[in-house]
Write a structure and sequence with these properties.
The protein is an alpha+beta fold. The protein contains 24 helices and 11 strands. The strands form 3 sheets. Strands 1, 2, 3, 4 and 6 form a 5-stranded antiparallel sheet that branches. The protein has a 4-stranded mixed sheet with strand order 5-10-9-7, with helices on one face.
Length: 553
């Protein structure tokens, strides 16, 4: 583990202790055997937060630790049903009220990126930030041409801070993969790899501008969602200028009700937007916490969402998209046998899984939740029970679906906040059914075939050459066919772990021998110490050679 990673881990511990969060950690059952470590830490004795609430302590600690931790707090803040309200209220401040950086730094970044003076670009510029979040902050401005805009500026030194935290996550994932029994199923290294791509994409504001343009194109003319206009002439990697949105933040329920907003319709529209993005467009906004969603209520009976912050978007492979839609429909229709079969077909559970046993397990988890309003269902708890079921059947985590699961987590929290009586199944089922019908219509099938025809023709052109090369290599005895099974992968993992244990044993042996050398040299009868040393060396060599033979080296 690199020294700077160790230093960062110590900084994390120090922040947790300074803000009194060791109380939370020591309260957990898993940590109780190690509570003495906190009592021995000098930070516990001298650096304590006093006179502030637990929610404030948690928020301040996450703010101090940086963007990755702030984003974790943002996700938690949307689940007021799962965490105490006082903590949820404090964490909600992380959505757009993170401490800002100086306006002079923001102006310098804008002028450097756009190679022009501020007054030459904008007719007016508000030096007080409109909002400040984990990655960037936003200032209101007006272009010379009169359009009201917002200017988003990346926080300074973001790349260095996030690179360090990603190194920490990599190190922890590697340790988990080496020593944690559940690592093969939960795939920590792949999960961190997926998160790395997501967070690094968010640091490129040109990519965010392109995401906004695509989402706007997808919802052109739609009464459901409004996406602001991007002003491309003023967009760079660390600066982005887009149309300013005017509306009510979705979490301000009192104001929405006071203005006569049709809350039930607003909630149903949210579900339709989500399923439309995931299935019809295959391009979904994946950072839907309340700080990023406004409501335009020019017509209170037909409210419309307006989205901002497009740094994180998700797409699905056609295969995953198909299996997800089929799974949703099977759930809606309570066809648990189909759910079980789809999991096997998709490869999400091992091929040898008994479909009837998996069907029974899924039925046990899902049957109680039907015909209930959203306020009586916790999808988070359902997911936890499904994960418990998945462990029994050795189901692996699918890293490519993590963004979608995170978005579902946000959507449920938002729906629960808006309209707890929402019937999610009734709203979503027609959307999915319509999408699946469209995919199987002859015109859609022909369109897909026409799209794939050039690639198919090109592949057919290459077949004779591939066949000729294969025949020549077979005739010369150089043809090799690679076959790899899940059992071989598992065996290779076990060998790698055995190598790790052998290295630990050798390191421990070296330390032990070093201690014996020290004792031998300092003993009253040196010859006796050297006899002990020779015996220890012989035992160590015999042990290491036996370990080497055991792992097949």
């Amino acid at each position: 583990m690199r020294p700077r990673v160790v230093v960062r881990l110590l900084q994390i511990q120090r922040a947790l202790v300074r803000h009194g969060l060791d109380d939370f950690i020591r309260a957990t059952h898993l940590y109780r055997p190690f509570r003495f470590l906190f009592y021995l830490s000098p930070w516990t004795w001298f650096q304590r937060s006093a006179g502030i609430t637990r929610g404030e302590r948690l928020r301040l600690a996450l703010e101090e630790l940086g963007p990755i931790f702030i984003k974790f707090g943002q996700v938690l803040s949307t689940r007021r049903d799962l965490i105490p309200l006082d903590i949820a209220d404090e964490l909600a401040k992380l959505q757009d009220r993170v401490p800002p950086f100086g306006s002079d730094v923001a102006i310098a970044a804008i002028e450097s990126a756009l190679s022009a003076k501020l007054e030459d670009i904008f007719g007016s510029f508000d030096t007080v930030p409109l909002a400040a979040a984990s990655i960037a902050q936003v200032h209101a401005a007006r272009l010379k041409t009169g359009q009201d805009v917002v200017v988003k500026i990346l926080r300074p030194d973001m790349h260095a801070a996030i690179d360090l935290d990603l190194e920490v996550l990599d190190a922890l994932a590697a340790l988990a993969n080496e020593y944690w029994r559940e690592a093969r199923r939960l795939r920590p290294i792949e999960l961190v790899g997926e998160y790395r791509k997501t967070i690094l994409d968010e640091l490129d504001l040109m990519r965010e501008a392109a995401n906004a343009a695509q989402l706007k194109r997808n919802f052109t003319g739609s009464p459901l969602l409004y996406v602001p206009e991007v002003y491309w002439d003023y967009c760079r990697v660390n600066v982005m200028v887009m149309e300013r949105i005017h509306g009510v933040i979705v979490s301000r329920m009192d104001e929405l009700r006071a203005r006569g907003t049709n809350i039930a319709k607003l909630a149903e529209n949210g579900v339709e937007i989500f399923f439309t993005q995931v299935f019809r467009h295959n391009f979904f906004h994946a950072d839907m916490h309340p700080g990023n969603i406004f409501v335009q209520i020019d017509d209170p009976e037909n409210p419309r969402y307006a989205a901002v912050d497009f740094g994180i978007v998700g797409t699905l492979r056609p295969r995953d998209q198909h299996y997800l839609a089929e799974n949703f429909m099977a759930f809606f229709e309570r066809d648990y046998a189909r759910v079980a079969a789809l999991h096997v077909e998709s490869g999400w559970v091992p091929a040898g899984t008994r479909v009837d046993e998996f069907e029974s397990a899924v039925r046990t988890v899902c049957e109680p939740i039907f015909n209930k309003p959203l306020k009586e269902i916790s999808f988070a708890q359902v997911l936890l029970r499904l994960f418990e079921t998945a462990r029994r059947f050795d189901m692996q985590i699918q890293p490519q679906l993590i963004l979608l699961q995170k978005t579902l987590f946000n959507i449920e929290g938002l729906g629960r906040e808006l309209y707890p009586e929402l019937d999610l199944w009734k709203t979503a089922q027609p959307i999915l059914r319509s999408w699946m019908r469209e995919r199987t219509r002859p015109r859609a099938v022909l369109r897909r075939m026409r799209t794939q025809l050039p690639d198919t023709i090109e592949a057919l052109k290459q077949l004779p050459q591939i066949f000729q090369i294969a025949v020549r290599e077979a005739a010369e005895g150089r043809l090799r066919i690679k076959v790899e099974t899940a059992g071989m992968v598992q065996l290779r993992d076990e060998l790698r772990r055995a190598h790790g244990r052998r290295d630990v044993a050798i390191a421990a042996g070296v330390l032990w021998l070093s201690g014996l050398i020290w004792l031998a040299l300092g003993a009253e009868y040196p010859w006796f110490g050297w006899v002990q040393l020779c015996a220890a060396i012989a035992l160590a060599v015999r042990y290491c050679s036996s370990r080497t033979r055991a792992v097949g080296l």
